[in-house]
Amino acid sequence: MIYPIIAYGHPGLRKKAEDISPDYPDLKKFIDDLWETMYVTDGIGLAAPQINKSIRIFVIDATALSEKYPEVKDFKKTFINAQIIKEEGEEWSYSEGCLSIPDINETVLRKPRLLMRWHDEDFTEHEQWFDGVIARVIQHEYDHLEGILFTDLLSNIRKILLKGKLADISKGDIKVDYRMIFPLRKKSNR
């Protein structure tokens, strides 16, 4: 099943997501649906809150970045009940975008290294350090679990300059190639 993506301004993007247990109903199908939805939208990652499910799951397939960052080739993981244990290093800038905030890319500062604990789709626990662009993609998706959007990390002046575009997204005054639910419009765009 391909889910619609909820757009900027939707309250589901601001909720802190809840941990789940291995007996979460239809977990395998839900994860498959997350992957399918992410691929249809040409995303690199997708978090459950972006489809209005306030649970701590996100998926990442960084293959699309492998031409510029060969170290991410074949990086494909499911993260369940993820927790960032530690972040370190000097912040570095990178242009980020988001399926819930289409047509906006902004430079965001993040730490280059993190220690993450999570469960995979079989509920096997992992703890691992991630670096560079993979750390960044994980941080971006993890933020969705915490109710944080990349636009929250921008300077006040950038937020002011983006206010009109963000309002347009909330109202659905934007063209996208995938289904979305807009908070200030009753129906999705398809």
Give the helix/strand layout:
Layout: E1 5-6, H1 27-40, E2 45-47, E3 57-61, E4 76-88, E5 92-98, E6 101-110, E7 113-119, E8 125-131, H2 132-145, H3 156-171, E9 180-181
Parallel strand pairs: 1-9
Antiparallel strand pairs: 2-3, 3-4, 4-7, 5-6, 7-8
Let me know the CATH homologous superfamily: Peptide deformylase
- CATH topology annotation: Peptide Deformylase
What's the overall average pLDDT, rounded? 95
Strand order, sheet with most strands: 2-3-4-7-8
Shape: globular
From the N-terminal CA to the C-terminal CA, the straight-line distance is 15 Å
Give the topology string: H per helix, E per strand. EHEEEEEEEHHE
Q: What percentage of amino acids are in beta strands?
A: 25-35%
The parts where pLDDT drops under 50 for at least 5 residues are: none
Radius of gyration from CA coordinates: 16 Å
The profile of the biggest β sheet is:
5 strands, antiparallel
Named at the architecture level, the CATH assignment is Alpha-Beta Complex
Q: Portion of residues in helices?
A: 10-25%
If helices are DSSP runs of H or I spanning 4 or more residues, what is the number of helices? Answer: 3
Number of strands: 9
Name of the level-1 CATH class: Alpha Beta
Features:
190 residues, alpha+beta, Peptide Deformylase, five-stranded antiparallel beta sheet, two-stranded parallel sheet
Describe the overall structure.
The structure is a single chain. The mean pLDDT is 95. This protein has a single domain, classed as Peptide Deformylase, CATH 3.90.45.10. Strand 5 and strand 6 form a beta hairpin. The longest helix has 16 residues, at 156-171. A five-stranded antiparallel sheet has the order 2-3-4-7-8, with helices on both faces. It is of the alpha+beta class and 190 residues long. Helices cover 23% and strands 29% of the residues. It is globular and about 45 Å long. The chain is built from three helices and nine strands; from the N terminus they run E-H-E-E-E-E-E-E-E-H-H-E.
